[in-house]
Structure formats: C-alpha cells, structure tokens
Predict the 3D structure of the following.
Amino acid sequence: MEILVTGGAGYIGSHMVAMLDELRHQVVTLDDLSCGYRDAVLAGDFVNGSLHDKDTLNNVFSQHRFDAVIHFAGLIAVGESVRDPAKYYQNNLGGTLNLLDAMRTHEVNQLVFSSTAAIFGIPEYIPIDEKHPQAPINPYGMTKWMTEKILRDYDAAYGLRSVALRYFNAAGAAPDASLGERHNPETHLIPLALRAAIGDLPALTVFGTDYDTPDGTCIRDYIHIQDLCTAHVLALKHLGSGGESRAYNLGNGQGYSVKEVIDVASRVCGISVPVKFGPRREGDPPRLVADASKIRQDWGWKPRYSELKEIVEHAWAWEVKCHK
Ligand code: UFG
C-alpha cells in the first residue's frame, strides 16, 4: 500500500512510519516540523509542509496514489489549548478539514485518525468503554471529539471511511532505541521521571497527592508506542478490505498511579527518581483507564508490551542514548 502519514516526524508518527516501512508499505510523511524532527523520519519520502498549505497538500496528493492516510498531525498540549483555544481549533480542525478536502478531491477514501481519551472528559465509570458518554473538558479534547463527528458526516455524505483510535497514555520507545519521545517542552510523566533520574532535571514534580485514589496520585493507562502502532496497521487492513467506519478505545486496560510509575522508573534506572510534591495540574482527571475489549475482540489486537516495566525500560534506553 502507499500511505500518507501526516505528522510523521512526531513521537507517534515516527514510530508508525518505521513500522509501515518494515511491513514494506510505501510511506510519505507530511510534517511542518513545528513539533516533529526531520531525523525521526527513518523511512520513506518526506515533505516539509503544513496542512494549512492547500497547494502543498494538492501537490502531494497529485504526485502519489495513496491508498490511505494516517493523520497524526495536530497539537496535543491540554494546558496550552485552554490558554489559546483559537490555535487548537485552527490547527486541529482547520488543518484536518483541508486534509479531508484534498482526500475528496483526489478520491482517497480511507483514513486512520488519532483521537484521544480526552474526548470523554471526567470519567463517569472506569474502565472507559466506547459507550461511555463523551464530554471533553478542554479545547484539545473538543477538537478531537468534533473531528470524530466530522468524520461520521463525511462517511455518510462522501463515503470517506475512517477509524478513530482513542489513545490513552502513549509511552515507551522503539525497543532498539532507534526512536523515542521528544516533545519540546516535555510534559509527559515517564520521560520527565527518567530525566530527573539521569540528572537532566533537578526533580520530578508530582502534580497532586490528594486525589481519590489508593495512594492519592492520578491513575493512567500507559500503552506502548509499538502496540499503539500495531492497532493502526489493523485499522488499515480493516479499511483496505472494505470495512466500515469505527472508533476504538486504545489502552492496556491497566491503571498505574503516578507514584507507581515513579517506583517502576526508579527500579528500571537503578536510581531513585528525585521527587517533589506539588499542587494538582488543572484539568487532570483522577483516573483514566481504557476498556479496550472491543478492539481486542473485533481485530484480535493484543498488546505485546503490556508490562509497565518493559515500557519504561524502552523509554530509559532511549533517554540514555539521547543523554550521551
Ligand atoms: N504528572 C506529574 N508530573 C509531571 C507530569 C505529569 O505528576 O511532571 C502526572 C499528571 O498529573 C498525570 C500523569 O502524570 O496525572 C500523566 O501525565 P501526562 O502528562 O504524562 O499524560 P496525560 O494523562 O496528562 O496526557 C495524556 C495525553 C494527552 C491527552 C490526555 C487525556 O498525553 O494527549 O492524556 O487526558 F490529552
């Protein structure tokens, strides 16, 4: 297959490009490098361009005959989305609409879309299945929720079929440390804990210890980046064989508290992660854990790296490599 990956220079996109290449697909990455890194694109063709640039989009689609698009390009910082919602709506919704226009013009009708657990807002029950009410509490979550709605309308009206994968906490790195997490600024727990252990940060701040959870810290469902990418490959197969539009929750189904993650990180590094305790971070739900039984049943998806220790080990190997 020939596949366009938007945001292929980012954390998840770059792992996806490498996996598609291993599976012998032809890959084209479209990324404006606003958040991604050119050297993270290890395979295929690379186009430096934005979804806001309709000419570039049209050129890319004219030069290739894509079977499908995997759409990662988008802004992901929850806090920033609250401070600057216009940026999020313009980028995540505006950019996506341009992409969908180009797909329609060039008759590409299969899309895998990066959605998020943030579309559910504050959970009413745990684990979160696909029937859980959707009530995003920040503009970032709203952009993803609205895109899912748009995709449903585009399928009904234009026959553009899609799979939306709602990621819980993407984590880890390529097992051979060829790729890993590189956000700027980094806000995610696991890389920050490891950087505190390695000495790049004086200490990790734990955001809140008074949550209604067993140890008072937030619980999240960490899913290995490779397992997340595998789900996209299954989504491509589904769409390629004429499958209908779907949306799936994607996580391991097991929750770990911030303190548990720190303990695992300390054991993996062999260094006690230096920690300080701070107030809650605004907009953090106390618990987010996926019920991913639907994608397991429908497609036989099964995480290969379901142990948090393995996820952190791979992230650690990557951090050590970057630190050198
Ligand atoms: N945390 C800390 N200290 C830090 C960083 C994080 O205590 O320095 C805590 C957070 O408060 C949270 C947990 O660690 O409880 C995980 O935080 P991350 O920032 O790693 O991940 P989030 O759960 O906030 O974010 C993820 C995705 C987002 C998505 C969100 C949905 O990365 O894209 O889930 O709520 F929007």
Observations:
- The chain has two domains: 2-170+224-250, 189-220+253-323.
- The radius of gyration is 19 Å.
- The pocket of UFG is lined by residues 76, 78, 116-118, 140, 169, 187-189, 192, 204-207, 218, 220, 258, 281, 284, 288 (CB under 6 Å).
